[in-house]
Amino acid sequence: MKKYVCNICSYVYDPEVGDPAAGIPAGTAFEDLPADWVCPDCGVGKDDFSVEE
Fold first, then answer.
1. 3-state SS string over the chain?
2. What are phi and psi of 16, to 5 degrees?
3. What is the pLDDT of residue 53?
4. pLDDT-derived band at 6, boundaries 50, 70, 90
5. Residue 50 pLDDT > 90, yes or no?
C-alpha cells in the first residue's frame, strides 16, 4: 500500500501502521480513511496529502 505525506507538515500516513490514536487500525488504506480524518500533527484534511514518492 502507498504511503501519503502531508503537504503542510510532512507527516507520513503509513497504512501498515494506521493511526491508532484516531482509532484507525493497521492495514487501513489511505483511500479507506473516513472523510473527516485529519492529519494528527497539523489537523489538515485528506485533500492536503500527496502520494509519497
1. CCCEEECCCCCEECCCCCEHHHCECCCCCHHHCCCCCECCCCCCEHHHEEECC
2. -70, -20
3. 85
4. very high
5. yes
